[in-house]
Write a structure and sequence with these properties.
Glyco_hydro/deAcase_b/a-brl; alpha/beta; 35% helix; two-stranded antiparallel sheet; 3 domains; Divergent_DAC; TIM Barrel
């Protein structure tokens, strides 16, 4: 009977296996049998969780290293196309870069020359990433500057880039009705200039009068706001000098060298513009002998010409084509009548022209009523599907046609 009781009442008669903790000498001091068993169970549980926690920390650390690594994980994806023809062309010569077409009628195409990589690989990049950074838009590109005694003059870069290309405001390149609005006379009135820069949408092109004041300061403010800009050059009108465009007017009877010097003075007043626009000039733009050297200078310096459309006999379009100068012409002057209703009606006429032809150009001056009307109309035109674009977007560029 005593032997049976040692088997713990098991009906099988199997011997009872004792835990080492069943012995008092092996049990931790101060713990009963149940408490000692708990210690071993909790120790195993803690060890498992400690190992799991360390594994989680290692995984998170590895993920952080991958996320913060500069290359190649944070570089925009590129599509690489390699062909035998590309390899041989790369080995022979590096092709000259080309720039977006700014003519009307569709999306701009950016052709990227093959980089200097082994195997002649051609890298195709996202064109939307090539836009000008507005944070530095007020800073001139030193490769596009000729330093002279009278000031900086625009010039083509050694790689062929033009101010017309570099300082142009990006646009969508989409098909559809496009309107370029150019507001001139900036720099003449300080308050009017400030209001135009502050209130006009950045898609509106601003034209600076060469005879204005504080032009460099105003240019920088306009560029920081995102505006494309052009320079207004005084050209001889009919009834000159009774009707006087201002200092250093280019005239029909002046020697070509004298007119060149006067043009250089106007061009040196600011930087970061895509081209020039005539200020008056009814007589000058009809004289071929005067216009030829004038357009020769624009071509040499990579600038466009914007005709304000005031002279029906202007030779500018033909001269621009012959001299390979980017060219645009205004369709309507919107504020010959300084009435808000009349200005809005003219802008509606511009919209109809754009819908019929694909694009249209409106010009005006930095009067308060003009600035207010244009600001209102641009917001409404956008909702009607009209894209407001910089003047360079609708210019005919013979070098890209």
């Amino acid at each position: 009977m005593r032997a049976r009781s040692h088997q713990g009442g098991s009906g099988t008669g199997a011997p009872l296996v004792k835990s080492p903790l069943d012995k008092d000498i092996d049990r931790p001091l101060g713990l009963g049998r149940q408490e000692a068993g708990d210690v071993w169970r909790w120790s195993a549980f803690g060890a498992r969780h400690l190992v799991g926690g360390l594994a989680t920390i290692c995984i998170l650390a590895l993920a952080g290293v991958i996320a913060l690594r500069e290359q190649p994980f944070r570089t925009p994806p590129q599509v690489v196309v390699s062909t035998p023809e590309a390899a041989s062309a790369q080995a022979a010569a590096e092709p000259a870069p080309t720039y977006p077409s700014r003519e009307g009628g569709g999306a701009s195409i950016i052709r990227v020359p093959p980089p200097a990589t082994e195997g002649g690989e051609m890298v195709i990049r996202d064109p939307s990433a090539l836009g000008h950074n507005p944070l530095v838009a007020h800073l001139p590109d030193r490769e596009l500057i000729e330093d002279t005694e009278i000031g900086p003059l625009p010039v083509r870069a050694a790689d062929g880039r033009r101010p017309f290309d570099t300082y142009a405001r990006p646009w969508s390149g989409a098909r559809g009705a496009r309107v370029a609005v150019v507001i001139g006379g900036l720099g003449v009135s300080q308050s009017g200039t400030q209001e135009a820069i502050d209130r006009l949408p950045p898609e509106v092109t601003l034209a600076f009068a060469s005879g204005g004041n504080s032009l460099d300061r105003w240019m920088q403010a306009a560029r920081r706001k995102g505006h494309e800009i052009v320079m207004q050059v005084p050209l001889e009108p009919f009834d000159y000098p009774e009707v006087d465009p201002g200092r250093n007017t280019l005239t029909v009877d002046a020697d070509p060298v004298e007119n060149r010097d006067r043009l250089h003075w106007a061009l040196s007043r600011i930087t970061n513009y895509t081209g020039v626009m005539n200020y008056m000039g009814g007589r000058f733009v009809t004289d071929q002998a005067a216009m030829a050297p004038f357009f020769g200078e624009l071509q040499q310096r990579g600038l466009m010409y914007l005709d304000d459309g005031s002279s029906a006999r202007s030779m500018a379009a033909d001269m621009a084509q012959r001299q390979r100068v980017p060219y645009a012409a205004a369709d309507i002057a919107i504020d010959s009548d300084r009435d808000r209703g009349a200005i809005l009606q003219k802008l509606d006429d511009v919209e109809r022209t754009a819908r019929a032809r694909g694009f249209a150009v409106a010009t005006g001056s930095a009067f308060s009523v003009t600035v207010e009307a244009v600001t209102t109309w641009v917001e409404e035109a956008r909702r009607r599907g009209i894209e407001i674009v910089p003047i360079s977007a609708v210019a005919n560029d013979p070098e890209r046609s």
